[in-house]
Amino acid sequence: MVDIPAGEWQTDACPGWKEGRVCDPEKYLRQTLQIAPFQLSATAVTFTQWDACVEDGGCQEPDTGWAYQTRPNQPPCQADGPCNYPYDEGWGRGDRPVIHVSWKDAQRYVDWLSQKTGQRYRLPTSEEWEYAAAGGSATRFAWGAKLGKSRANCDGCGSRWDGKKTAPVASFAPNHFGLYDMVGNVSEWVSTCVPIRSKRGEDNQTCMAYLYRGGAWSYDVKSVGIDTYNWIYPDFRANYIGFRVAR
């Protein structure tokens, strides 16, 4: 875990922003926020870390609900039963970022990690994530205004993994806070949600979808950056979304 200092950050967020406030991204306004100190994992959660949760019984779900029933039967899965291990696309496990994990799956992991360690782990908010990704910079990338070459993994970033697959975590230099791969490789789930709208058009606090940040190995160069965000429903799994933990 890396200590992220308190600071001021200008970004798009809900009007009258405060932690826990949610609204449709179409309503976001540019504003200056005060970010309290927190900790963030230096890398995205890896397959090794996730698989430990599976083996300990913390990252499993009923046979009828698991998305991996139709996945290829590759180790560590067996052909004669359901599989709780996320599919690695044949790219390898170990220190590669875990993929094919939904927002709900990530909640299972942070709950398990909290129970095992006695400390409260969680997903970062979208504002915390962006502030940490900047690493003290005011530009679109922690290292400057332009993406450059071989600084990240995306389709056109100049790495040997470009547009093909994920890279092992920490394959590129960290930002000034000591965080790796905040741009590209895998997009990362955050805790900030998109709420359901009422018939009157007003947002309520029921979360319909969640944001994921940063872009990924499959994104083109125009679609990665510390300001990149998208949202999707919490059961969604893909080979370009992972997460990292905060506390």
UniProtKB/TrEMBL annotation:
Domain Sulfatase-modifying factor enzyme-like stretches: 1-247
SUPFAM superfamilies found in the cross-reference section: C-type lectin-like
Record's protein name: Sulfatase-modifying factor enzyme-like domain-containing protein
